[in-house]
Amino acid sequence: MAVLTDPLASAVAELEEDKVRVLVPELVAAGTPPLGIVGRLQEGMNEVGLRFETGDYYLSELIMAGEIMKEAMACLEPVLAGSTREYRGTVVIGTVKGDIHDLGKNIVVMLLKGAGYNVIDLGVDVPGDNFVAAIREYGAPLVGMSVLLTACQEGMKNTIDQVRASGLPVTILIGGNYVNDLVKDYVGADYFGTTAVDAVKVADLVFTSQQ
Description:
- The protein has helices at 7-13, 17-29, 34-53, 59-81, 103-114, 128-138, 153-165, 181-187, 196-209; strands at residues 90-95, 118-121, 142-146, 171-175, 191-193.
- By secondary structure, the chain is α/β, with parallel strands linked by helices.
- The longest helix is centred in the N-terminal third of the chain and has 23 residues, at 59-81.
- The mean pLDDT is 88.
């Protein structure tokens, strides 16, 4: 187990719900950039994930950490949404077929909206046809696909193959705690991200290149 020096990250990792409830509003009141707070929260969640993988935490702790994160993000949503009102483009996003996890996706949606993007959230367990239909309907130049389960990697590849076969001019971003360059290349995506902030950076890059 890692020793986290940031109090908020440590509180999340140690499942100290009451402490997180106090620290997040304090940081907001102190003028800490919202994305900086999100980064600290995700640092704690990353540690929770590592402890789960090594057997130090069980499913109950993982669920509790997710609830702590949801509550903290609900507190941050007003300041994230108020960070900008500039409309910058449309992004389609969803969790791929076979995967029903949405915590990471929901954080990405919130940050993208806060950064000024119009986000079409397709939800979870999304089949390829739905991705294609939404990209076509909204003319979205960027689509984000979230996955947590490694067992759904083939499903993600099939979905991306379907999007490519449609001929739609879209950039594909995949996200998840285990994705890397090898996964990106295997499934045929253009970019990958392991944090919600990565998704915003990719969106900024894609939409800036179109200007």
